[in-house]
Amino acid sequence: MNTVTGQAIRVLVIDDEPQIRKFLDISLRAQGYSVLMAEDGRSGLDALATRGADLVILDLGLPDMDGHDVLRALREWSKVPVLVLSVRADEGGKVRALDAGANDYVTKPFGVPELMARVRALLRDAVAPATAAEPPVYDDGRLRIDLARREVALDGQALALTRKEYALLALLLRHADRVVTQPQLLREVWGPTHAEDTHYLRILLAKLRHKLGDDPASPRWIVTEPGVGLRFRPQRS
Length: 237
Fold this sequence. Notes:
Layout: E1 3-4, E2 7-8, E3 10-14, H1 18-30, E4 34-38, H2 41-51, E5 55-59, H3 67-75, E6 82-86, H4 91-100, E7 104-107, H5 112-125, E8 137-139, E9 143-146, E10 151-154, E11 157-158, H6 163-174, E12 179-181, H7 182-190, H8 198-212, E13 222-225, E14 229-232
């Protein structure tokens, strides 16, 4: 049995083809891996959030979500290695998947020995694979942020955040207790051409703090480090 810290290595397969799922289930279990199955993107993200995995094998052609969107969604809160399986063999498709967060790319049809070699390589290269998936939910009793479902609630009431407000909050949470510099925030929320547009950040931060009821003079969650950047301060419930 393949294990990490005494537990079976868990592989999550996200693929809508029953034959492929069955084939991968048999092949992976024969190598000693524990296997989870999902037939669409949303159930795959839910499985990763609730049950965890040391490796994800992802098909790009899913019925409910484009595989690239699945990649981008899970990369908002997880560092788990992702191996893409796809019939799309063009170089542009591979580059797009790798840019979206994939670690490796295998085209269909594929051979089992090659696939298993790539699985072993990804698991070997991963840092602490058993803890690769970061906790997808922050909940301190007042503020709840579900990174897997992109949901934010305050005192039990859902908050309607804009896309950029959510992106800023999620980015700070992923770096909790660490300062994220202003240029990094601007690059990741607005793009590389806006690294100097600090007024964008000031306006967005003010709107986000207002919705959170986070007093800038005495912040509960989002702390300003003058001249440097911002820090998310987790509260212990």
